[in-house]
Amino acid sequence: MTTTQERAEDPNLPYDVFSKACPSRGTLEHITGRWGALTLGALYEGSFRFNELRRRVDGVSEKMLSQTLHALERDGLVHREAQPTNPPRVDYELTPLGREVAQRLIGLIQFLEGRMDDVLDARRRYDEKRDA
Amino acid sequence: MTTTQERAEDPNLPYDVFSKACPSRGTLEHITGRWGALTLGALYEGSFRFNELRRRVDGVSEKMLSQTLHALERDGLVHREAQPTNPPRVDYELTPLGREVAQRLIGLIQFLEGRMDDVLDARRRYDEKRDA
DNA sequence: CGGGATCCGGCTTGATACTG
DNA sequence: CAGTATCAAGCCGGATCCCG
Q1: 8 Å CB contact between A37 and A107
Q2: Which residues have Cβ atoms closer than 7 angstroms to strand C?
Q3: Which among A24, A34, A105 has CB closest to B113?
Q4: What digits encode the pLDDT tens for the residues A50-64?
Q5: E strand residue ranges, A5-127
Q6: What are the φ and ψ backbone dihedral angles of A57, each rounded to 5 degrees?
Q7: Can you give the pLDDT at residue B132?
Q8: What does the pLDDT look like over A40-99, one tens digit per residue?
Q9: Which residues make Cβ contacts (< 8 Å) with residue A95, sequence separation at least 6?
Q10: Residue nearest to nucleotide D15 (CA to C1')
Q11: In 10 A of CB A37, how many CB atoms?
């Protein structure tokens, strides 16, 4: 594995998310973060306006959605299309790179949803053992 | 999409991570959280002891690793094998379910690492435009 | 409508110290 | 070694007000 020190010394090493200093870790956090994954997942289904997205991602605040979208746009995963009309209209959609990332995320999410009964069973067993 | 209200009313609906009330969202956060993804990724390579793991996941504190492992164990993704010796020896490894999750996570991580140059380019373009 | 700016409470996080 | 306990700091997230 690449250590923090090795990476700092040699910028030609491959990106290694396990290393604290690697920029890939920051992007991974944008993608897998609390709202990043859900936002990418929602956008996988099409193009949406700000408040549409907000309704789709149940529970996200305006601030967090805005922040999340900015981070994803900066990383080149989301494209922001603003029309200078009045009232303004802004649409968000995935870039090709964003689509690939979102697809993998969706795969993970759907796999997880399909196995939630196993997870819930495991939790019950764990909690019972702990109480005993 | 399943709304929070629909889920609350009908427990037989499929799990939907986009709904605030769905337990799958909590598990997704354990998996994709800041340390969850890296811990699962590290464990994909084998069985490790607590401090080995800590060194592999560069930057994680004792408390966070401990907390992360507990959550993943409770969700049935990680198995904890403790030997009552002195000094104590505890090994962590993925369960079969954990392996499947970790594999998808690794896929995402490796894809991302392979595209980091694109991400970094996108960031530069974004920042330049913003400064102008 | 689509946000940005600000304020603020609280949960999360990270050091540090301590224990079996 | 493998953690737990404690505490301070800070970031997250919600509420509110604002503008174009």
Answers
A1: no
A2: A 49-52, 62-63, 66, 69-70, 80, 82, 87-90, 92; B 33-34, 59-64, 67, 87-88
A3: A24
A4: 999 999 998 898 999
A5: 48-49, 78-83, 89-94
A6: -90, 90
A7: 64
A8: 999 999 999 999 999 999 889 899 999 999 999 999 999 999 998 888 999 999 999 999
A9: A76, A77, A78, A79
A10: A61
A11: 26
Displacement of CA A106 from its chain's centroid (Å): 10
pLDDT tens digits for range B51-60: 999 999 999 9
CA distances B18 to A19, A71, B74, Å, are 31, 20, 22
Read off the pLDDT of each residue in B78-104 and give the average, rounded to a whole number.
Answer: 96
Token pair in block for residue A71: 């981070």
Q: Confirm whether any atom of chain D, the nucleic acid strand, is less than 7 Å from CB of B74.
A: no
Q: Which residue is nearest to nucleotide C4 (CA to C1')?
A: A63
Which residues in chain A are closer than 8 Å to B27, comparing Cβ atoms?
Answer: 112, 116, 119
In this complex, how many residue pairs, one in chain A and one in chain B, have their CB atoms less than 8 Å apart?
151
List, in sequence order, every beta strand (DSSP E) within A9-77: 48-49
